[in-house]
Amino acid sequence: MKFLITGGAGYIGSTVASALEDAGHTPIILDSxxxxxxxxxxxxxxxxxxxxxxxxxxxxxHDHPDIEAVLHCAARIVVPESVEQPYLYYHExxxxxxxxxxNLHELGCNKIVFSSSxxxxxxxxxxxVVEDSPLNxxxxxxxxxxxxxxxxxxxxxxxxxxxxxxRYFNPIGADPKMRTGIHVKEPSHVLGKLVDTAMxxxxxxxxxxxxxxxxxxxxxxxxxxxxxLAQAHVxxxxxFDGVFKRAGSPEDGYLVIxxxxxFGVTVRExxxxxxxxxxxxxxxxxxxPRPGDVAGACANADTAWRLLGWKAEHSIEEGIRDALKWGxxxxxxxxxxx
Length: 338
Description:
alpha/beta, Rossmann fold
């Protein structure tokens, strides 16, 4: 089967593309390459265009009328940047996604898997959230994800579309076959920064926030291996109708599913695990929270098991090992302009 992936030249989209290929399917990549990497499109069907480009979408569906569903991954994702540039985030993540959904519907593609985020959840006692836990997005980035979930739900209800919002927790690691991984030159992801510290690219790792109400005061996260995350997407895309059937075929045509391990790990615990896998300590210091940071949450992943037949299988140590390996290889794979 064929599936269109917007943002398919990015970290998550490219890894899902590899997982789809390994399962015998054909990913079709739509990416503007504003942040995505051309290297991740090699050997794949690729259209370089903006997600709101109607003509590009018409060309894609003309060339591939047998596309089964769309995975919408394209988005700006850096929380502090969203605080500094909210217009950019609302324009890129919300306005353009609105056009994308409308155009997809008009072109006859009514099945959408949406990359959402656990950052839309409110703080809850114990930090474990289920899909109907209270929401309170605390940054422009998180609010764009929340808004697009509402838009997708409304459009599914009104136009007979079907949408699955996958709320990601914290992806780590790389494709175990080292085809793809974190693709930006200066990663904002916590594990990317740990790898850069270990490799001497940055002087020290900053533990941002140390007075949260967690067991050691640092933020708590649910770190999920990117390959586990990719497998969940394969199940959602390839068994789209089955997922809705198991969910009882909701009248509004919309589902929400958490994707996480079910285990919370503090930032300080992640650093300790990293140093154990790496084999030596790294330079680190406590710093105040960044703009938009929150204490965090971990996932109750029961719905993912019930609807997708999926659960995370890789350990946090495996994620760290793959991230370190990718950190050593990526300068030979990715070529940034100096």
